Amino acid sequence: MYTTEKHQHPPAYSPPAYNPYPSTIPRQPPAYETVVSGHPTYQYPQNNAVLIHGAVPVVTTHTTVIPMPQQLYEPEHIGYSIFTMIWCFLPLGLAALIFSFKTRSCNRRGDAAGARKNSRTSLTLNHISIGIGILVTIAYVSFLISYWATWNTHSSGCYGTGCYG
């Protein structure tokens, strides 16, 4: 049994057809095959359609929960610090201003814990400076009132031995 076989060459390579508008042709993403109750299913991620072999297409929906971002930046209290530094109590106002700038640098670095700590320290120093400023103002006003009352009685000519006038 001697047979002569003809050898055929493989077909010549032909490049795919040229498409001048490749972005206008929609492409179907690859299907992901799973098995649901013995039937193969194919899910296409772009339209959430699930096809069960031999059944009617079913559309599934997905709920996406997007958490609200937390406040990333702590308040710096720079204006409050400048106010307390100028009008209330200079040393604590200056310290509060330094902590305000530290808060700003922590906010820019993304260090939320450091920014929160520095912001609270700045706010506390500002409150203490306001309190000291209020106490000093009350003491100064009461001193002026008592001095004016004392000066007023001495200037009228009443010096312990009687009033002349």
UniProtKB/TrEMBL annotation:
Keyword Transmembrane helix: yes
UniProt cross-references to Pfam families, sorted A to Z: CD225
GO cellular component: membrane
Transmembrane segments: 78-99, 125-149
Cell compartments where the protein resides: Membrane
Record's keyword terms, sorted: Membrane, Transmembrane, Transmembrane helix
Domain of life of the organism encoding this protein: Eukaryota
Family from the record: Belongs to the CD225/Dispanin family.
Protein name per Swiss-Prot or TrEMBL: Uncharacterized protein
Organism: Pleurodeles waltl
Lineage: Eukaryota, Metazoa, Chordata, Craniata, Vertebrata
